[in-house]
Design brief:
The chain has one domain (4-257). The chain is mainly alpha-helical and 258 residues long. The protein contains eleven helices and no strands. It is globular, with a radius of gyration of 17 Å. The longest helix has 27 residues, at 231-257.
């Protein structure tokens, strides 16, 4: 067991790396922070709540920045949040029923899907020339958003990895509008999840503060590096790492059950 000072230092480093990569590639730091916390051996509720607090801090910063640029579709973002909030509350409650083995299994599946998405994102997310107005499609996005809320609080990864593809592929939004609108929805969803986790007594606030501080600083570094970084190379590297971690998690959970 690590002493508190060492744990805080490691969490700051994790947040710094996750915030930098998340900002560079645009996938959000939660999908990087949560696996790292899992490797530290923390229980599922602490992983989800600690990571989610850090995700919330960075999403607040991003939302403020995008708001100043007037790039957020507030109506759509709030409508999506109305469906993601109950999902976030459910996810926080469900996290308390997961064993470490089952958490790794389900999280491994999520990481596998995310890794494939990150690897092929450029070909998957082809922007449509015109928005799609169908009410059926809009309803489909809201259903997806509810599921994303559950995933967000259950694993502490935020829902941006689901919100953005849904808006691009289903509604035909442009990346310039989808990403800022996603940040608004993510901020509200994460806050709902954090409040529910806090009500249930899950977070370790010192650890969450350390992770958040690192993630916030990393996001600023990533934003500055993005002008010269080779995004495609980083994207492929992260995708392969997530797939490798997913295989490790699924194998661990399988052999633990055996």
């Amino acid at each position: 067991m690590l002493d508190p000072a060492t744990t805080v230092a490691i969490l700051i480093a994790i947040g710094l790396g996750a915030g930098t990569l998340g900002s560079l590639i645009g996938v959000g730091g939660g999908i990087i922070m949560a696996p790292a916390l899992t490797f530290m051996g923390l229980p599922p509720t602490q992983i989800a709540s600690t990571s989610l607090i850090a995700v919330t801090s960075t999403s607040v910063s991003s939302t403020v920045a995008y708001s100043r640029q007037k790039r957020i579709d507030y109506r759509l973002g709030l409508e999506m949040a109305a469906f993601s909030i109950p999902g976030a509350a459910i996810g926080a409650f469900l996290s308390g029923y997961l064993t470490s083995e089952s958490f790794k299994m389900y999280f491994g599946i999520l990481l596998m899907a995310t890794g494939v998405y990150v690897l092929y994102r450029n070909s998957i997310l082809k922007e449509s020339s015109a928005p799609k107005k169908s009410m059926l499609l809009r309803g489909g996005v809201f259903a997806i958003t509810f599921g994303a809320g559950i995933v967000s609080s259950l694993f502490g990864v935020g829902g941006g990895i689901i919100f953005v593809p849904a808006m691009l592929l289903v509604l035909g939004m442009t990346m310039q509008r989808a990403v800022p609108t996603s940040q608004l929805t993510l901020m509200i969803t994460s806050l709902a999840g954090v409040f529910t986790h806090a009500y249930l007594g899950h977070p370790d606030y010192l650890q969450a503060a350390a992770l958040s501080a690192g993630a916030f600083a990393g996001a600023q570094i990533g934003a500055r590096m993005s002008r010269s970084a080779k995004e495609v190379l980083l994207q492929r590297l992260l995708g392969l790492v997530l797939i490798g971690v997913s295989v490790k998690f699924i194998a661990d959970s399988f052999f633990a059950v055996k």
